[in-house]
Design brief:
It contains twelve helices and ten strands. With about 350 residues, it is of the alpha/beta class. Helix 1 runs parallel beside helix 11 and helix 10 runs parallel beside helix 11 (about 245-260). The two termini are about 55 Å apart.
């Protein structure tokens, strides 16, 4: 593995409509060492009817007695004038800004702001007009695949490519759309099945609790990791409870970088630079187990393998047994061929 894993810290709607919180989320993502901090761009009127109900997890996590998805999303819209400010703020903190567009107008809006990557959320994978518009921007695409099967992923990819998307610029993220995702429903090996069957770069968008699964995904070959985070899990809102706090996000990034380094070798079993110096210390040499006189015929019981490993290797023992000593030797002397007939 040679390419650096891209880590997207998903702030999403965890700003709760507060610009100060949005800035602090960028601070936390930058401090953690993530590559991107990502928000969500939408107008509630353009993505949901006023009669649409919250998802079960949204009801469970918001606990505000209002089951209207419209009312919830209306409060979580990110104002247009925040975007350029947050882009510049993120740049000043050394992290790249991203946002997911959830409606067609937001795609154009983000494109005009110079967003370099388009992220397609799981809920839009069957939205053909949306997919076509994204593809026509001819920018790299990250496609989340929660709630979909392989046939739906294939259909979405076909739309994107037919509308001008570069096949080599598409990364598919395995994802399970439940907050939090039960471990038994992660099905992480599906990520590699997607790669094997469709031939695209793959990654993982995680909604489990904790950091174990995204780390495992990197070990399995994920090129992108996306993970929700928040400043405080106790804050009101639909996604806070299933998000990492800043310290957990930092631990995840560190662990991913460690795993990334650990699997970056050649894949050939060979002596590493750092362990070469330990051979003499950890391996053993052949020593005489007893003091012996010249003329003695060496038997197996006359030999013992002891550290350090700076003498004859115990692998030579068969070439020693049966030979005759030409000199007297003491207990724990190194065995040497020039002592033998």
């Amino acid at each position: 593995m040679n390419k650096k894993v891209i880590i997207i810290a998903e702030a999403g709607v965890n700003h709760n409509g507060d610009l100060t919180i949005a800035k602090k989320l960028i601070d936390a993502a930058a401090d953690a060492g993530a590559d991107f901090v990502k928000f969500q761009t939408f107008k509630a009127d353009k993505i949901v009817t006023q009669n649409a109900q919250k998802a079960e997890y949204q009801v469970r996590n918001t606990k505000d007695g209002d089951n209207s998805q419209y009312n919830m999303l209306k409060k979580l819209e990110m104002p247009d004038d925040w975007h350029q400010f947050l882009i510049e703020y993120a740049k000043s903190k050394g992290i790249q800004f991203l946002s997911t567009a959830f409606d067609n107008d937001s795609i154009d809006f983000l494109d005009n702001l110079g967003i370099t990557i388009f992220k397609i959320p799981s809920g839009e994978i069957t939205n053909k007009p949306y997919l076509k518009k994204i593809a026509q921007k001819k920018k790299p695409i990250i496609l989340s695949t929660g709630m979909s099967d392989l046939s739906e992923i294939k259909q979405a990819i076909e739309v994107l490519i037919n509308e001008g998307a570069d096949q080599d610029s598409i990364t598919i993220l395995h994802c399970t759309t439940e907050y939090p995702t039960p471990m038994l429903e992660v099905n992480l090996l599906a990520m590699n099945s997607i790669k094997a069957q469709l031939g695209f770069e793959v990654g993982y968008s995680d909604h489990t609790l904790g950091i174990e699964v995204p780390i495992a995904a990197v070990a399995l070959g994920a090129s992108i990791i996306e993970k929700h985070f928040t400043l405080d899990k106790s804050m009101p809102g639909p996604d806070h409870l299933a998000s990492l706090d800043p310290s957990e996000l930092k631990k995840m990034v560190t662990a991913i970088r460690n795993i990334e380094a650990a699997i970056s070798g050649s894949g050939n079993k060979e002596l590493s630079v750092s362990e070469a110096k330990n051979i003499a210390i950890a391996r053993k040499s052949l020593f005489f187990k007893h003091s012996l006189k010249a003329g003695h015929v060496i038997g197996q019981d006359d030999l013992i393998a002891l550290r350090p490993g700076t003498g004859l290797s115990p692998m030579e023992s068969d070439n020693i047994v049966g030979r005759i000593l030409t000199v007297d030797v003491l207990k724990n002397d190194f065995v040497q061929f020039n002592q033998l007939e």
